[in-house]
Write a structure and sequence with these properties.
It is built from 16 helices and 15 strands. With 436 residues, the chain is of the alpha/beta class. The strands form three sheets. Strands 4-10-9-8-7-5-6 form a seven-stranded mixed beta sheet. It has a four-stranded mixed beta sheet with strand order 1-2-3-13.
Amino acid sequence: MHVQSTLQELADRAPELLAPSLAQDWPELPVVRADGAYLHTADGAAVLDFTSGVGVTNTGHCHPRVIEAARHQMDLMIHSALGITLHESALMLAQELPRVMPQGMEMFFFGNSGAEAVEGALKLARYVTGRPGVISFVGGFHGRTYGAASVTTVKAKYRLHYEPFVGGVYFAPFADPYHGVSGNFGDSAADAALSALRSLLERTIDPSQVAAILVEPIQGEAGYIVPPSTFLEGLREICDEHGILLIVDEVQTGFGRTGDMFASMGFGVRPDVMAIGKGIASGFPLSATVASRDVMSRWKPGSHGTTYGGNPVSCAAALATLEVIRDEDLLANCKRQGERLITGLRDLGRRCRSIGDVRGRGLMVAIEFVRDRDPGRRDPQTARRFLDACLNRGLLLYMAGVEGETIRLIPPLIITERQIDEALSVMAMSLDEIER
């Protein structure tokens, strides 16, 4: 006779059931349900979730309009592979997305994850240009499949034991105002990074051999590094000069996370190709490689494919997600609450020597812990103690950065002023605790 295990009993068995690379993370919180901005644990606690499934549930957990759309689609059809059949939700989504995307981003290859979208973007760029080279940036994170990992350098452990990677990939410094580039900080970091990129094109790979430059408009896993706008503008100029495609990875920054629908729009920079995912469908697996009709039409039938990409239920959820973002004015709320959050955190940072920097855009916010306010002296130990202290008080945050020295705050875009203030109060008490 089958005996059903409790969630806690199953959680205790997780080390023998799930691969360590999947499940051995922090804090392994047993959760039984979620709604809005809260996770509800097996012991009955409500935890204010400032992770949003790592930037996925932008409309909050289980938004009723998203659930309703998904349920309706499930009654009609759960799966049928695109191309073999065509279904309404995917076609409707492909019709609606250009209304909110950067100009010219009008044709879509749907996948399931951000890594898939990046893989598609890399393949598309090489295919249509006939060039082999790809330039990415130090500190970038683009996923963990082979192609995506080949252009990822945020942490050496993401690359350990996986050599050799995909060839033809080159790395340039990202414009990091806080940590600097070749001794240049603030806005001058952009000039230094662009100079290094031009040197790479002069000395290492000729521009005629470069298919694409791949960049996150704000580096995510690296710790929410926000570059000066002149950096992205300079990348656009270099790409235009040499016929290189500019691929913008907006998997983490898209669908309102920064207060603009996509971060590149806030920087005023037009991509040639985009990778989008995470917030697109409020938690249902979906992503897309996106380009102009001119570029995408040159990717011939059979040159790329998918089984589950553009799943009918996920596409229906994505359509509802777009409606919620629009109807509830979540972009405005993101900017308003993000400003309140950053202002509050900077007030805390001024009285705490272990906080080196508070940065971000919209509700993509980071706190970096350092020793004695020195950007070169990371302090992951204090960051971890801060995470634990916040969780003990009912607030879930998550780490980022090379050693986990940076804490990222990713609340849903539906977050309220009261919840922002609740989180700031928890963080203030937690900082007082760890600095005693």
